[in-house]
Amino acid sequence: MDKIALNKMEFYGYHGVFQEETKLGQRFIIDLEVEADLQQAGTTDNLEYSINYGQLYFDVKEIVEGEPLKLIEAVAEAIAKKMLNSYNRIQSVMVRVIKPDPPIPGHYQSVSVEILRKR
């Protein structure tokens, strides 16, 4: 299956379990990969047969910068659900939500959740 990927999209949101996360907010980095048959788009050079990745970006932005959720798992599920419900061409979606600065002690680059959902 063909893929469209949007890598390392960065947003500021208010998701988290701890009060300071929902009050101060933090950065979230999102990787999105959707699988769809893109052959007709490639042979016709017509966006009608593809998925507008600009619109995918704005759909993700709306969720991450929107209503706060407690878990990054819930953020990932909301994004996957939006993709599958909004775009009939999408057969599967992988969402990775990366939290580069979670409020936990220690030395690490980030924490993340990755989900894969299919029709």
From TrEMBL:
One of its GO terms (cellular component) is cytoplasm. One of its GO terms (molecular function) is dihydroneopterin aldolase activity. It is an enzyme of class 4 (lyase). It comes from the Bacteria. GO terms for biological process: folic acid biosynthetic process; tetrahydrofolate biosynthetic process. SMART domains: FolB (SM00905). Belongs to the DHNA family. This is 7,8-dihydroneopterin aldolase.
